[in-house]
Every structure is written in structure tokens, then in C-alpha cells.
Write a structure and sequence with these properties.
Number of strands: 20
CATH class of the largest domain: Mainly Beta
CATH architecture of the largest domain: Beta Barrel
Number of helices: 7
Radius of gyration: 33 Å
Strand content: 35-45%
Helix content: 10-25%
Number of domains: 3
Structural class: alpha+beta
Order of helices and strands: HHEEEHEEEEEEEEEHEHEHEEEEHEE
Shape: elongated
Distance between the termini: 121 Å
């Protein structure tokens, strides 16, 4: 075995190290900067971003205020009464929001991209919690949301909500359709049926804002939350767009929902419950209107404070009628001029009437 002298070991090792370093540099090229981070988004993230970018310019903030007078002065001053969301309905400056957002307001301001515009009420539907506003001086190039079809929704579909929760403008939350055909109470205490339930976070201030599908189409108007604490608990509700399609044109044209009528006055739900009446009792039939022409009868006095019931409506086109909400909801399915079958109970007899609906007078 040959032993190298110690004085020759240093130069030999140095040469070996330089050779290895040179080989390593040749085999392992210098790393290049990673530019793929620019396209890191998944397909779902890209879809969410694209929808928000396209829809957010159509979402507005609605601020309401009331005029008040102090007890010590005759001066009138303005008091903020609430804020909510809304969205552009048409390029001529019509805005859709919730009725409860603007209820009781003396002055309305709509904010679009940090610019404030005065607005006035065009029409309201408290029974559907919807309202239409008109901008007094609408800006140019307003963005309008495309309308979807809420009948195509199914549980599990992706949805996106845009609004102004807690005054934080243009906030996006994402979730799914949690359930369909829910019922909630409107500000007028009427039931709103067919409501969409979602777990997309909806908080105070989101009311009136749009609920969108993965195509960026409007499928609902966010209207309420279920929350013991007042914050989002993952249960929010939206009025389906197919209902909005029916209601908004009527609010624009007439200022209210134009529903067909029978021409009757009904006993209150409290009265019917008190006396155990099954159905809705007719108190009075108005002359010259469909119910009178069909031969329906109202209640009448039989002396000593006693009342004899006339017709008690039990069903309309086979749909059971248990209270006034059932009655109104059944009529809202039809148009002026439609002929419908109404079943009643008159004493011990069951009666059937074919009635042609009239318009509101």
C-alpha cells in the first residue's frame, strides 16, 4: 500500500474538490424562476373570480333615512334608518331590492361604485318582500345581471351571494343550495313559498342583493337569515328569480301586484279559529263582482246577535283553503279572466261554483 506524503495531500484534495464542483455545476443547471404562479387558480376558483368580476358592478348599496322632529323643536332632521343591498334591473336606472330595506323611508340613496344617487320608489310588494326603485339621474353604461331559471336548481348546486353585509361594500360569499321550496314570513305576515335555502354566508346588509349561479345568472334575491345571534349561521333564504320575474314587471307597471279577485270580504283568521270554522268564511259578497254573479252567499244576521254563515270556502281548484294566506296564494296562480272551481260548505251542504275572475277595482 502506498502512503502519500502529507505535504502532497493538500493540493491533491483541492484538485479533486474543484473537479467535483465543476461536474456538479454541469449536471445540475441553474434553477429558473417559477412563473406558473400566475395561473395557480383551480377551475372553480377561476369561475368564482370571473362571476364576481362580471356581476359586482351591477350590485348596489341602498341607504334609507327617515325625517324626524324633536319634541323640543319644530325643526325636521334626517335620521338613518337602515342599509341593504340591491341590483340593477334595467339600463334606464331601475333597481330591485327587498321591501323591508326601504320600508318607512322618507329618503333613499343608491350607491354605485362609491357614487351616490337619489332614488324614488316605483312599486312595492310587501307580501313578496320585493321593491323596485328608480334612480333620479342614472349614470351611463349600467351593468344588468342576466336572469336564470330557479326551476332548474337542485340541492348541492353552487351559488354565490354579493352584497354589503355590515356596511362592507361588494362582499362575496360562496356556498351551495341547501334546500328548496322553503317557506318564510314576509313583512306583511304572508307566507312566501318556494324559497331557496343556502349556506352561502348572508348577514344583515345582504338583504336585497343577488344570489347567482355558476353561470353568473340571477337565481334569487337574498332576503332573510335564520340566526339566534343575528349573524350568519349558515342558513340563508332567497326569493327565487322566477317569482321576481312575475312580480317586478307588475311593480313597474302598476306599483303593486295586480291580482285577480272574487269580490268577497272574508272573516279574519282569528275569528275562524275562535269559532272552529274549517275553511275561510265569506262575510259579504260584493254586488256586480264574480262571486255574486256565481251565486255565492255571505253571512247574515238572524237576530239576537246571532250570525248564520253563508259559504265557507274550503278549496280552490282542489287546493285546500285553511286560512286567508291559502286563499290569496291560490288566487295568485291565476289571471284576470280565468275560470276556476271553488268548493264551499253552506250549512250541511257542499257547493261547487265556477267563477270567472275579475280585476282589482
Amino acid at each position: 500500500m502506498t502512503v502519500l506524503p502529507s505535504r502532497r495531500l493538500g493540493p491533491w484534495l483541492m484538485a479533486l474538490l474543484l473537479t467535483l464542483c465543476a461536474a456538479g455545476q454541469t449536471a445540475k443547471p441553474e434553477a429558473q424562476p417559477d412563473t406558473d404562479y400566475l395561473s395557480f387558480a383551480t377551475d372553480d376558483e377561476a369561475n368564482t373570480t370571473e362571476i364576481f368580476r362580471g356581476a359586482s358592478p351591477a350590485v348596489v348599496s341602498v341607504t334609507s333615512s327617515a325625517l324626524r322632529r324633536t319634541m323640543f323643536s319644530r325643526n325636521i332632521f334626517e335620521v338613518p334608518s337602515g342599509t341593504g343591498s340591491g341590483f340593477i334591473w334595467s339600463e334606464d336606472g331601475l333597481v330591485v331590492t327587498n321591501f323591508h330595506v326601504i320600508s318607512g323611508a322618507d329618503k333613499l340613496t343608491v350607491t354605485i361604485a362609491d357614487n351616490d344617487f337619489p332614488a324614488e320608489v316605483v312599486g312595492v310588494a310587501p307580501e313578496r318582500d320585493l321593491a323596485v326603485l328608480r334612480l333620479s339621474e342614472p349614470p351611463q353604461d349600467l351593468v344588468v345581471l342576466p336572469l336564470g331559471d330557479s326551476a332548474e336548481l337542485s340541492v348541492g348546486r353552487k351559488v354565490l351571494a354579493i352584497g354589503n353585509p355590515f356596511g362592507l361594500d361588494t362582499t362575496l360569499t360562496v356556498g351551495i343550495v341547501s334546500a328548496l321550496d322553503r317557506e318564510i314570513r314576509s313583512p306583511s305576515n304572508r307566507l312566501i313559498r318556494g324559497v331557496i335555502q343556502t349556506d352561502a354566508a348572508i348577514n344583515p346588509g345582504n338583504s336585497g342583493g343577488p344570489l347567482l349561479n355558476s353561470l353568473g345568472q340571477l337565481i334569487g334575491v337574498n332576503t332573510a337569515i335564520y340566526s339566534p345571534s343575528g349573524g350568519s349561521a349558515g342558513i340563508g333564504f332567497a326569493i327565487p328569480v322566477n317569482m321576481v320575474r312575475e312580480v317586478v314587471p307588475q311593480l313597474i307597471a302598476y306599483g303593486k301586484i295586480l291580482r285577480p279577485i272574487l269580490g268577497v270580504e272574508l272573516a279574519s283568521d282569528r275569528w275562524t279559529r275562535r269559532y272552529g270554522v274549517k275553511g275561510v268564511a265569506i262575510v259579504r259578497v260584493l254586488r256586480g263582482l264574480p262571486a255574486a254573479e256565481a251565486g255565492m252567499e255571505g253571512a247574515r244576521s238572524v237576530g239576537r246577535g246571532e250570525i248564520s254563515l253563508g259559504d265557507v270556502i274550503t278549496s280552490i281548484e282542489g287546493q285546500p283553503i285553511r286560512n286567508q294566506d291559502d286563499y290569496l296564494s291560490a288566487l295568485e296562480k291565476y289571471k284576470v279572466g280565468d275560470s276556476i272551481r271553488i268548493d264551499t260548505r253552506r250549512g250541511d251542504d257542499t257547493m261547487t261554483f265556477n267563477v270567472t275572475l275579475s280585476e282589482t277595482r
